Amino acid sequence: MISPVLPTYARAKVSFERGEGVRVFTPEGEEYLDFGAGVAVTSCGHAHPHLVKALTEQAHKIWHTSNLYQMPGQEKLAGRLIDATFADTVFFTNSGAEALECSIKMARKYHAFHGHPEKFRLITFEGAFHGRTLATIAAGGQAKYIEGFGPKVEGFDQVPFGDLEAVKKAITAETAGILIEPVQGEGGMRPVPAEFLRALRQICDDNGLLLVLDEVQSGVGRTGKFFAHQWTGITPDIMAIAKGIGGGFPVGACLATEKAAAGMTAGTHGSTFGGNPLATAVGNAVLDVVLADGFLDGVQQRALTLKQKLARLKDEHPAIIEDIRGTGLMMGIKCKVPNTALQAAALDQHLLTIGAGDNVVRLLPPLVVTDADISDAVDRLDRACRALEAKAA
Ligand code: PLP
Predict the structure, then answer these.
(1) Backbone angles phi, psi at 92, to 5 degrees
(2) How far is CA 195 from CA 86, 162, 185, 231, 355, in A?
(3) For the chain, what is the mean pLDDT?
(4) 246 lines ligand 1 (CB under 6 A)
(5) H or E stretch including 143?
(6) Which atom of ligand 1 is nearest the CA belonging to 128?
(7) Separation of 3 CA from ligand 1 center, angstroms?
(8) Helix, strand or coil, per DSSP, at residue 251
(9) SS3 for 144?
(10) For the segment 122-178, what is each residue's pLDDT rounded down to a tens digit?
(11) CA-181 nearest atom, ligand 1
(12) Torsion angle, CA of 115/254/235/36, rounded to 10 degrees?
């Protein structure tokens, strides 16, 4: 008999009823160290007092009005995102995939607005993940997500990761832009080299294309800058964000330059819930934390600590760990054993991690993680590796 909840997830047999900072607790009171952060979502940790206060204060005022009226919370959050980025304008969504949908529609509309509706195709990269809607599975290009759901949405041309010549060859009279994650998350924690992103910017400029970044996972401080592309010196025309900006409340956004957003006039796009008062109250509270003086410097320092400790772990467990990759607090352990085995062994040590493609285990702790939490997590990983080695012996 089918389960009451549609069985589309392979869930671990554990549930959590409470969280505090980097730790979560089962109904029986057992403590787990959360180095998954709900897939890079709980950027400020669980039950951050400032976020709890912002949400509960807003809950006592008004929850929802719709986008038919002025939205002061959206205006404030949009203004702050604009001040801290390349963007001139923001559309709020409830999820990452919807932020991508808006970004894809905007890139197409830009060219239609300028008299070129035939330019609707986006170049994407192997290993990409952009969400689970019909357009975003087509953009991601992974057969396992596409098969069985009818004709693939037209308009996405995938090229190998890091292959600049293939990008140039893929450009046709129908190309609208290039869509890329600055750090591939689901694809296996693969950072895109800065020079590659700069080259893509140049290609876009030379060919009248739009550069669309998917910073749903890499954004909002995850790499130690507000957004990952800020390490490279280039800016996109359009950017999708979500996950960390809501700290656990569902909110996403599409950020764009005025030029790129030119065709998105009244009636061209919409969302019932997108950026409702609860969502933007929390989003603003997240920015209070993440954009506070010195916070991102702290993320960079702690990321270095994590990287160094993981490098040592790799040296100590050569039969388990092939490589350490990633950037900032977005690290991946490329495994020699099945990644699911390392994840399960880590879970036995009460450490939450996230799987990724290419046999990688992801470590995505809340950005407020401390050096002591990092030592604790790496000790648990060490014990998990030892348990796997003992089993194999
Ligand atoms: N883009 C990237 C890079 C992601 O990592 C994800 C989710 O994991 C998405 C898009 C889709 O976001 P959501 O699951 O909120 O729709």
Answers:
(1) -95, 140
(2) 19, 10, 19, 11, 28
(3) 98
(4) no
(5) helix 143-146
(6) 3
(7) 25
(8) coil
(9) helix
(10) 999 999 999 999 999 999 999 999 999 999 999 999 999 999 999 999 999 999 999
(11) 3
(12) -150
Nearest alpha carbon to residue 178 among 192, 194, 158: 158
Minimum-distance ligand 1 atom for the alpha carbon of 100: 10
Is the pLDDT at 393 greater than 90? The verdict is no
What does 40-79 look like in DSSP terms, one character per residue? HT-TT-BT-HHHHHHHHHHHTT-S---TTS--HHHHHHHH
Check if 242 has its Cβ closer than 6 Å to any atom of ligand 1: yes
The DSSP letter of residue 84 is H
Q: Check pocket membership of 129 for ligand 1, CB cut-off 6 A.
A: yes
CA-closest residue to ligand 1 atom 13: 96
What b/e readout covers 153-168, taking b as 16+ CB neighbours within 10 angstroms? bebbbbbebeeeebbe
CA distance 349 to 50: 30
pTM given for the model: 0.98
Q: Which two tokens stand for residue 326?
A: 């990633």
* Helices assigned H by DSSP within 208-294: 277-290
- Hey, what amino acid is at 381? L
Q: Which residue, judged by its Cα, is nearest atom 10 of ligand 1?
A: 130
> Is 362 close to ligand 1, i.e. is its CB under 6 Å away?
no
Check pocket membership of 196 for ligand 1, CB cut-off 6 A.
no
For residue 48, the one-letter residue type is: H
95 Cβ below 6 A of ligand 1: yes
